[in-house]
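A quick aside before the break. I want you to see a complete sequence-to-structure record at least once, exactly as it would be stored in a machine-readable document. Don't worry about memorizing anything.
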Amino acid sequence: MSEQLVHMMGELGVENRHSILENYPAVIFDAAEPKLSTSAAALTVQAARRCIEKSGVPPESIGLVLGVTSSPGRLLPSLVCDVFAQMPEIPRAADNLSISYMGCSVIARVVETARWYLTCNPGKLVLACFMDAITPLSPPLPGTYAHFTEIPAESHQDTVDAMHGFLFGDAAVAMLLGAEGDGPTFGPVVGLTNELPEDTELGTVPDGGSDVPVVLGQRRLYTLSPKVSKRGVHYASQTVRTLLEKRETSLLTPDQASVLFMHTGSKRILNGLCDEFEVPRDSAKVASSYRVLRRYGNTIGCSIPLMLAEGVHRPEGEGIVMAFGLSFSCGSFSIRIPPGGWAP
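That is the input. The structure line, written in tokens, reads:
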């Protein structure tokens, strides 16, 4: 790698990642055949079982199971059906829904879906199973790579491939959502999707679908525009402003929030959001976002759930959650921490 690209990789803010592959370095550097240490579905089930065990709730109280992913282990059966197959303790009559390919903004869709369901079924619980396994999709890196500014535009995909191999990590998180309880309360979601039609092309995975069904024996192509960081900050700040203007929260400005959970797109994006919201980058309010990025990388839809699952005591107060990502979409909502604070 060129010195400029090495510097850019260092500025991503990632120090550790997890992969469901036991030979991930050999896969990306030597084009080795991927070997799974665990399957995507098994990782999801492990998180779901830990969640149910920790909560102490009877599994029969679960009325809806959500399978949430942009990188399923297979296209059919869906992740949620694989969860049912491997978890006989879940009621067979429970409803299920697959929320797929919503990218990094998916936590907002999960919260809205749970709100709708729990309004009609207040005595039931929603089990949301988040899983993203991106490392098996990383393309091999056999050559020498340079920064975007050092190469012609037609070679930018090579730099995107290199960044893909170092930014993303695999994770699974499960959450139980109910109409009542002692934990945090989520407010209504404010969303923004494809403000500009061309924003939908900021990042794509164009192959493997009905339009391009044959991948020619290669891993999927992952394209990314250099405008992603700037547009991500715009979407997040716009939805937060709308959230405040609609008075969906008692906060008047973002810096008044007790905590800001911001999707871990990259350190550059987090820095941009802190500056936009006039919150110091080293503030305790945003520490979870930087910490999850350092420890796990960008885990797509699992990033915000990983912050919520951290074993950290959250002080009483009202915060803001913002999740944004490719497609292009964003959702922001408030989170109210109960009196006395809360730790998962």
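Two observations worth writing down. Residues 40-134+171-178 form a domain with the Peroxisomal Thiolase; Chain A, domain 1 fold (CATH 3.40.47.10). The chain has ten helices and eleven strands. We'll return to this after the break.
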